[in-house]
Amino acid sequence: MSKNLFDFANENIEENKTSSTKTKIKEEVEREEQAKNIYEKYKDMSQKDLIEEFVSTSKQKINDGSISKEKISQTASVLSPYLNNEQKQLLYSLMERLND
Question: What is the pTM of this model?
Answer without folding.
Answer: 0.64
